Amino acid sequence: MVVAEKQTKDMLTASKIGRYAINPYVGCPHACQYCYASFMKRFTNHPEAWGKFIDVKRCDKRINLRKIAGKNVFMSTATDCYNPYEAKYGITRSILEQLVASDCHLQISTKNKLILRDLDLLKRMKHLSIAMSVNTLDENFRRDMDKGSTIRERLDTLHTFHDEGIYTILFMSPIFVGITDWQAIIETSRDFISEYWFEDLNLRGSYKPVIMRYVAEHYPHLYPTYERIYSKGDRTELIANDRAICAYCDANGVNYSAYFHHEEVIKTEVNKILGKNNIFK
To answer: Which CATH class is domain 2-267?
Structure first.
């Protein structure tokens, strides 16, 4: 892993996902095989592969709390603010120490149980939701796809925050058609989840052939389906899966927001990301 400390002028940036974003790092050692944020690599001058470098942001400017008052602030849109290097550098914690005094609507998304370290600060936030990405209950599949915490650790982390009265989101992303057992995930977790988010697998760029090869090798019976969806543009089976998820949630009183397609998230009004916003139906 190549680690560098970089100075930045401002931690706060305008975002198409939420009103503002805070990304304390550039790059992510979780190295998700399907990570849409891997496109960031071309802006970094890093020759290393995505997942093999991380830039630690240093910033002398304090966050403008007036600017974000009453607005959605999303941590993080292009990295994981609780990647393993946060344990050493504490950049995310230093940001939270500033945000404790804010009345922004803070939304944190992570795949790492390290977030529990900051429970003392997070309990003091006025408006907070915690999202954990879970798209499988199969630990072998999870291990093939990312280097985050185990599925059990992620679910236990959400359970802990729920018990503390904090709004919990299970971000089922990305959903692999025929592989992600979305019903089992919901039934395993619904007692401690405030809301579910759903997002389909979005294949583009350099990671598309990686995922397609993986499906061909490990799920050959599904490869024709993935060919139809991601090579031929026939989303019939994808849409059918999306509708089945929505129908199940509606029938069983499950609170959810359907952000199935990434482009739909971008088109959503930027300050309506927090809370239920079903843009699929």
So the answer is: alpha beta
